UniProtKB/TrEMBL annotation:
This is Uncharacterized protein. One of its GO terms (molecular function) is lyase activity. It holds the Pfam family CbiX. The lineage of its organism: Bacteria, Bacillati, Actinomycetota, Actinomycetes, Propionibacteriales. It comes from Tessaracoccus lapidicaptus. InterPro entries: CbiX-like (IPR002762), Sirohydro_Cobaltochel/CbiX (IPR050963).
Length: 235
């Protein structure tokens, strides 16, 4: 049986954010004919990841979990890991979607869709984390966007780290127009902060951008191939 793909998101109370995850799952399903694709969540929303994994394994399916999360953190290392470890040999998970150069290209697409002028200074808004590796990822994303964008690119954090997005926007203000690129999956609490950060242009989050969906599909295919190979040659 072809492994099931579970698109695993954080979860949100925002209806538009909820719709984005379903759009990503539906777009992945269109690119993976014959693969069952389902969305699950680690917080806020139902169904919870562990429940969905248990149901599919109970039906004798194998499962690939692709976290629709942009960096390593508690949810990937605890929630997702626990759901996988409960079913050794039947369930595998991939890493988070980022960093990946395709996501940086998608950020630039979102900036241009929002009408950001090519000479605008760009602040890449990231969620933020107290983990030092999260800051490293943020700066890697900034470097990737800088390689694609003519204007100056810097980082702003939405929580946990400095500078905050509004501060980064204010710092960039003397260089002409300022745009914010949203390194987020979908609308919600953090995107509202992006929208209120004082930039001339606030881009939409990544959402179901085709390049993000491509990353999901590629992660699934690689993990599914490994899972099938392991089952074909146990031990």
């Amino acid at each position: 049986m072809t492994p099931v793909l579970i698109v695993c998101a954080h979860g949100t109370d925002d209806p538009d954010g909820q719709a984005v995850v379903l759009e990503i799952a539906a777009a992945a399903a269109r690119r993976l004919p014959g693969v069952t694709v389902e969305a699950a969540y680690v917080d806020v929303q139902e169904p919870k990841l562990g429940d969905v994994v248990d149901r599919w394994v109970g039906a004798s399916a194998t499962v690939v979990v692709v976290p629709v999360l942009l960096t390593l953190g508690f949810h990937t290392e605890v929630d997702v890991a626990e759901a996988v470890s409960a079913h050794p040999g039947a369930v595998v998970s991939t890493g988070p979607l980022g960093p990946d150069p395709r996501l940086e290209r998608a950020l630039v697409d979102r900036l241009r869709e929002a009408g950001a002028p090519e000479d605008a200074a760009v602040v890449v808004a990231v969620a933020g984390s107290s983990r030092p590796e999260a800051a490293d990822v943020a700066h890697q994303v900034v470097a990737g966007v800088q390689s694609l964008w003519p204007g100056r690119v810097s980082v702003g954090f939405l929580s946990a780290a400095e500078p905050r997005v509004a501060e980064a926007v204010a710092s960039a203000r003397g260089m002409g127009p300022v745009a914010v690129a949203s390194y987020l999956i979908g609308p919600g609490f953090f995107q509202r902060r992006v929208d209120k950060a004082g930039a001339d242009v606030a881009a939409a989050p990544l959402g179901a951008h085709p390049l993000l969906v491509e990353v999901v599909v590629d992660r699934y295919r690689a993990a599914a191939a490994g899972l099938v190979a392991d089952q074909s040659h146990p031990g």
